[in-house]
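Justification of computing resources. Each target in the renewal requires a structure prediction run like the one illustrated here; the chain below, 110 residues long, is used simply to show the kind of job we budget for.
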Amino acid sequence: MNRNNDKVCEPMAMTYGMSDTLVNSGLLTQIRDLSTQDKRCLIGYITQAVACEEADEAEDWDVIDSDLPPYTLDELYARIDESHQQYLRGETYAEEEVRAELKKEFAWLQ
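Resulting structure tokens:
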């Protein structure tokens, strides 16, 4: 397989898993134009909304226990920086490889 011609492009990687409705809504373009502070506030708002939705759904699901502590913001930023460096070094996967790995890893959700 020629890995030079089938790498996941950055826009595709950024929108992987998003619905067509979200991708085509224009919201992603609007977010790009926000200030860093506004983006942080938006992330906080969305995080809280998701937490509330998950709390509502937890009544219907078996809650998965985990002994793993949550990541700190510094740890998350470090992971983002490392993945960006991997991208710059060309350490990427073909889209089909990414989809196969995600399908395997999250098979229990289906």
